[in-house]
């Protein structure tokens, strides 16, 4: 019984992976000669096996669903977009249906020329609208069928439809910057205003 | 896998709720097992595991991408469960030490030569028995044991999750393991 305490310590350190080669050899040699410690060591290893056997412990099969259903509602726009992508046929039908009653489609097709929501103090070069350095646009800015380069600042949201935001390091937008480049997104952009109420209703 | 999880977390942070689904599916077993080992009841374990995932989702912005996600998640689950245990009834043994190796209990009087084949380890009866013996330990030992043997976490990770020094983790593992050896020697 006298040898036990010291070697039990060694056993635990061994099980934690904390022994150096020398100590490990010391433990090994002792275990070969001491039946009592050998037994103790076997029991410890057996205990670990028992504690690690927990694969039978599983949550209910619908656990993930239950969690997802209890999450607070995400931002609406993302869930709509994903729903549309997951249901392409219904989406296509819905788009067609809505297009029949709106001017969205024609607006997309016919409105091929560059337009900008306000032109004051802005430079238009070919297909690029430039907010020059030192110019501050007050309010939201919408550029359609053209690129936008902001060297000055925009005090509001920026929407670029069918164009790109050409980065200029000095430029500054205080609100959100949104780029709408595909018919799908264009549809979404138009839809937001037209049928906001319908979707707010159906998503409940 | 950790990289894939981190990609998903980025999406969740951007507001994509569906990306969270895979995170839950991947971690649910371990989180549930940790809760179960601590609380000892399947119904409550399920409830706590769910709550842990919901909290993780709500607080996802406070998760630091440079750290291991599972560690962060286990900390939420462990804290929730320990909280629940405290609320259920004052745990008089929370700060008690495990008794020394002497003292016979009813199990140590069982015949010692009944060695069980490995596959029987999984039998429900034995598992219930094991869990009962774990429940007999004070919470602070149970939490260390749960983390160590559910996901083979390193001592450093456990120290991080429970916010206790690594030396304390070691002592608790040694004592917990020794106490359970005594209690499970005839299983
Ligand atoms: Zn010995």
TrEMBL record, chain A:
The Putative zinc-finger domain, residue ranges: 3-38
Keyword Transmembrane helix carried by entry: yes
Highest rank taxon of the organism: Bacteria
Segments passing through the bilayer: 86-108
Entry keyword set: Membrane, Transmembrane, Transmembrane helix
Family of this protein: Belongs to the zinc-associated anti-sigma factor (ZAS) superfamily. Anti-sigma-W factor family.
UniProt-recorded name of the protein: Anti-sigma-W factor RsiW
Originating organism: Aquibacillus albus
Lineage, broadest ranks: Bacteria, Bacillati, Bacillota, Bacilli, Bacillales
UniProtKB/TrEMBL annotation, chain B:
Keywords: DNA-binding, Sigma factor, Transcription, Transcription regulation
Domain spans labelled RNA polymerase sigma-70 region: 27-89
All residue ranges annotated as the RNA polymerase sigma factor 70 region 4 type domain in the record: 129-180
Regions crossing the membrane: none
Alphabetized Pfam families for the sequence: Sigma70_r2 (PF04542), Sigma70_r4_2 (PF08281)
Family statement: Belongs to the sigma-70 factor family. ECF subfamily.
Protein name: RNA polymerase sigma factor
